Inverse folding.
């Protein structure tokens, strides 16, 4: 009897160990190719992927893309060896935003079917235990977002074009960003996100504003050129709503974040 219990315990321990290792191991996506100079680098392949697999609501057809990933894979091959330091400021920003969004999609289809990026790796590991090759180095998604985009391109509007493949994220657009259009699209994406009542709700009777948690997680970023979140919001709201968020007695509260996959299915 004791031996049977011991065997059962060992089997359970083995199963738990396998599950632990699967969810907590670091996964790398190695790519070895010849370097690509800035002049020959292009986001065209990613643009085609987005046009073919993303609808107007920002939902991705992961089923179709997983079955036909060739264009995405070729684009990631280019990202892996590109040299963005030779590009203009706007072109570099477009490069890293496109890279982040493309690699999020890559991370999803590598583990698809799933209903959330949070189910790919426990405790948010999707963002810090999947590793990818970009510009000759290895990065996690967190390192791209926090170590490169937020530090080298200090602009709170980037939070409205970086997409984490979840329902409460800004919707992914069906065109890749470029140096020529990224400034205009930053403004448009920010305006659209703030104008969406799913992201900002007003309770005038209780003197409260309910906000997307993006404004909580990245609170410090909204002091870049502004006096904080309220001042930033006021720039993108109608006058009456702007006055409301700027009032001294207003309290901010944060909406639940929906991590459900932005899946067209």
């Amino acid at each position: 009897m004791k031996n049977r219990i011991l065997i059962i315990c060992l089997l359970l321990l083995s199963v738990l160990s396998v599950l632990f290792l699967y969810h907590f191991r670091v996964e790398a996506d190695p790519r070895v190719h010849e370097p690509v100079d800035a002049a020959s680098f292009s986001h065209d392949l990613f643009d085609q992927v987005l046009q073919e697999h993303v609808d107007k609501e920002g939902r991705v057809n992961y089923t179709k893309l997983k079955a036909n990933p060739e264009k995405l894979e070729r684009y990631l091959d280019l990202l892996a060896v590109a040299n963005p330091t030779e590009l203009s400021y706007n072109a570099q920003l477009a490069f890293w935003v496109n890279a982040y969004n493309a690699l999020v999609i890559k991370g999803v289809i590598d583990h698809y079917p799933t209903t959330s990026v949070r189910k790919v790796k426990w405790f948010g590991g999707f963002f810090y235990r999947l590793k990818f090759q970009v510009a000759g180095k290895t990065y996690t998604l967190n390192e791209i977002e926090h170590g490169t985009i937020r530090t080298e391109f200090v602009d709170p509007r980037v939070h409205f074009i970086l997409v984490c493949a979840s329902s409460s994220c800004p919707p992914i657009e069906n065109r890749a960003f470029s140096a020529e259009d990224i400034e205009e699209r930053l403004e448009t994406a920010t305006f659209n996100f703030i104008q969406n009542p799913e992201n900002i709700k007003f309770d005038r009777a209780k003197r409260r504003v309910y906000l997307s948690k993006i404004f909580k997680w990245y609170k410090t970023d909204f002091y870049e050129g502004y006096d904080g979140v309220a001042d930033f919001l006021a720039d993108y709201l109608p006058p009456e709503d702007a006055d409301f968020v700027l009032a001294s007695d207003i309290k901010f509260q944060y909406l639940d974040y929906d991590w459900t996959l932005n899946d067209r299915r």
Strands lie at 27-29, 130-134, 137-140, 200-203, 208-211, 251-254. The longest strand covers residues 130-134. Residues 96 and 149 are 7 Å apart (CA to CA).
